[in-house]
Amino acid sequence: MPEIKARLAPFDPVWQRICTEAQQVVQDEPLLGGVMHNNLLHHATMERALAYRFALKLSSAEISEQILREIADEAYASAASLGEAARADLVAVEERDPACNRFLQPVMYFKGYQAVQAYRVGHWLWTTGRRDMALFVQMRVSEMFGVDIHPAAKLGKGIMIDHAHSIVIGETAVVGDNVSMLHSVTLGGTGKEDGDRHPKIGDGVLIGAGAKVLGNIHVGANSRIAAGSVVLNDVPRCKTVAGVPAKIVGEAGCNQPALSMDHRLSPE
Asked: Where does the sequence pass through the membrane (predicted)?
């Protein structure tokens, strides 16, 4: 399998673009040459580079970089969906974040992207029965990035978490494809009950900064949650909700609010 991936690497346009951008960084900022080579240019595939970043960022006195690297390499080799999701998330960030104009930036500098990729390895551990290791990864991601995603939560592809400070996503939460959220979002429970207790977010939803979505409720596809809102009830498809508690205040404003990233209640 590694040999096949190595042969296919030249045909991976996402990875090739990252490497081209890294080579430009080396030319423009020679002091970062070692960083670019160690993290990107030294690796044959994007999966190997992501495994290296995972281990580098999450290693500590408690667990070595080598052990974490072996775990991540095994995850990417066993589940092709991890690499597919990593590419979809990367394209999502580059397309939706106006501060991002290179694929290299999320991989190297954006903690939201890096935290989501680390969660994906933790989720793989959880689903393969290695739950204590998955919880350890969750702890380290929270400590390093300020992003706390339970490894049992289910996240789709094309996820963009902008700024990504103080994100909390609970154990039974489900997040669909092409969802965008900003910092300080909580997808949480509403008490001490166990079982299925966290929100289900549909495809294409846009969640504003500081929004709290609580309980086993459904947020319909292509809807918007305004910044600072507290959502306690189901949200229909293609609607905008705002307030504390949140109420429907209008239509979503466009077909795919998570892609447009327009948070205004009354677009001009």
From this structure: none
